[in-house]
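Project outcomes to date are best conveyed with an example. Our students and postdoctoral researchers have been running inverse folding experiments weekly, and each run begins with a structure described purely in tokens. The record below, which covers 516 residues, was selected by the lab manager from last quarter's runs and is presented without edits.
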């Protein structure tokens, strides 16, 4: 059920972002003004963001879920030029002179006449403060896309105007600057790494001022090298087979650079920076023809044959009276199934009472409380969903509860992803294949399960159960900050394994790693 917190009247710019809080938000939520539905930009279990109307005025916003109305609240939408955001008040020299005089001790007969020395001294100080304040006010004003008059600088930074959409007036230019700028993500390393992941690439990003050793030999000319950054990517399997099989195998079908990704980076990057693209080629690079011949790229290169393919190192282990499959990937041995240990009487509650689950009580539930359907012995073999307090309890008592094993840490997850080719392709190789369970489930999770890791879309619990069949969600043993902890997520629509921060009260699957 969707619940809204009490919401005070909200004032926002036209098209601005509004965030409301409560519980039970999900993909079924909607927001409207009258009969007009507004765009929902983002949501999690406890909050929802939506775009304000693109016309000014006073409105009543209605928030609901499916056919149910959860609540209403007033909102005032103002034009950009009416907004107080980033607008410092106008001040005069007299204002600052009076302020400075007001700082003087009481009881002294200050001479305030225009010919007096104190008046002249404070006037000089006030003039300096006024100049500094005016410069600061202009900087703040032009630093915001909502109030700037430095149109050309903002347009250059945002690669505007778009051809065919040139504005004829200053107001039109400002509207377009604000529209584009508020959609721009933060220019951060994690953002560009996530962008590369959309192209199936795992990249490393270096900035000159942090990693100057990476730029040795680069001719910067007259440029300031501090505005340079580098994108380094390792060519993946699909990039290696680059020849057509003619008589000489020298007909290039492609090469190891990625012009599409480079073009996208050039569009998104800040205009005042420059990007260098480097590619780390694999040690093994060859081409095998249809008749079994191959072309070496360098002397002593290694020919990839079926005999050199990965062979899983599988086994079993008994934990809590239950036999689990195990698999060794890289240097670590993992459970090849989600943990399904109820720990009855050992400190982890399996009560169906949500009071226990939503507090710091270590808790574990089956999806929709259905052990027969979602337990490892059940039809869908999902195991239990644990909150993070249960994970922490397991780590504190692992010597008695899971002897010889422990909950996977962030470093162990990263080592696993590196061992299977990087986070950009790891989900494809770790997710269960279609029809892996009882012939038809998961039917469209999109995995190859190349390493017998058997990641199933067991869903998640955020106040209610969600995403069964569409995502696999795992905890790590690492604590987060505040109410959050760390984890990993695999989606059916992506080959990338996403780094996750989730509420400690959420329910996720658990994988164990054998002690070294």
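After processing, the design step wrote out the following sequence:
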């Amino acid at each position: 059920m969707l619940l809204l917190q009490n919401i005070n009247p909200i004032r926002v710019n036209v098209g601005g972002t509004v965030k409301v809080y409560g519980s039970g938000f999900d993909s079924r939520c909607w927001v409207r003004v009258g009969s007009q539905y507004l765009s929902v930009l983002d949501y999690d279990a406890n909050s929802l963001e939506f775009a304000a109307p693109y016309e000014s005025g006073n409105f009543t916003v209605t928030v609901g879920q499916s056919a149910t109305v959860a609540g209403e609240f007033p909102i005032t939408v103002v034009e950009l030029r009416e907004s107080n955001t980033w607008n410092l008040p106008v001040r005069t020299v007299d204002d600052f002179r009076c302020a400075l005089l007001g700082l003087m001790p009481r009881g002294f007969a200050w001479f305030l006449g225009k010919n007096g020395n104190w008046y002249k001294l404070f006037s000089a100080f006030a003039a300096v403060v006024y100049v500094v304040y005016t410069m600061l006010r202009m900087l703040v004003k032009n630093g915001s896309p909502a109030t700037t008059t430095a149109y050309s600088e903002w347009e250059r930074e945002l690669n505007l105007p778009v051809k065919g959409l040139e504005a004829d007036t200053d107001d039109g230019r400002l509207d377009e600057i604000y529209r584009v700028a508020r959609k721009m993500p933060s220019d951060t390393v994690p953002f560009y790494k996530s962008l590369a992941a959309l192209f199936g690439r795992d990249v490393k990003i270096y900035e000159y001022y942090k990693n100057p050793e990476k730029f040795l030999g680069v001719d910067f000319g007259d440029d300031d090298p501090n505005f340079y950054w580098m994108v380094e990517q390792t060519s993946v399997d699909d990039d290696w087979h680059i020849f057509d099989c003619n008589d000489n195998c020298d007909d290039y079908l492609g090469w190891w650079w990625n012009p599409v990704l480079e073009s996208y980076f050039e569009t998104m990057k800040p205009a005042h920076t420059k990007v260098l693209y480097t590619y780390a080629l694999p040690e093994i690079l060859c081409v095998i023809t249809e008749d079994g011949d191959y072309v070496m790229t360098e002397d002593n290169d290694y020919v990839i044959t079926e005999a050199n393919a990965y062979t899983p190192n599988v086994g079993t282990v008994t934990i809590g009276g239950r036999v689990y499959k195990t698999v060794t990937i890289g240097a670590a041995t993992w459970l090849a199934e989600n943990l399904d240990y109820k720990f009855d009487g050992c400190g982890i509650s399996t009560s169906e009472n949500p009071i226990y689950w939503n507090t710091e009580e270590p808790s574990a539930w089956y999806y929709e409380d259905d052990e027969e359907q979602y337990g490892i012995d059940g039809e869908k073999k999902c195991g239990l969903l644990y909150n993070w307090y249960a994970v922490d309890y397991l780590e504190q008592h692992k010597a008695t509860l899971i002897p010889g094993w422990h909950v996977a840490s962030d470093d162990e997850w990263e080592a696993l992803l590196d061992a299977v080719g990087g986070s950009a392709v790891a989900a494809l190789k770790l997710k269960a294949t279609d029809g892996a369970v009882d012939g038809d489930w998961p039917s469209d999770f999109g995995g190859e399960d190349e390493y017998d890791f058997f990641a199933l879309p067991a869903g998640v619990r955020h106040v209610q159960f969600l995403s069964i069949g569409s995502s696999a969600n795992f905890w790590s043993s690492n604590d987060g900050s505040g109410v959050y902890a760390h984890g990993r997520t695999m989606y059916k629509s992506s080959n990338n394994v996403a780094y996750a921060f989730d509420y400690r009260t959420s329910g996720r699957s658990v994988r164990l790693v054998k002690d070294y």
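The longest helix spans residues 117-142. The chain has four domains: 3-82, 93-181, 198-303, 313-514. The training component of this project remains on track.
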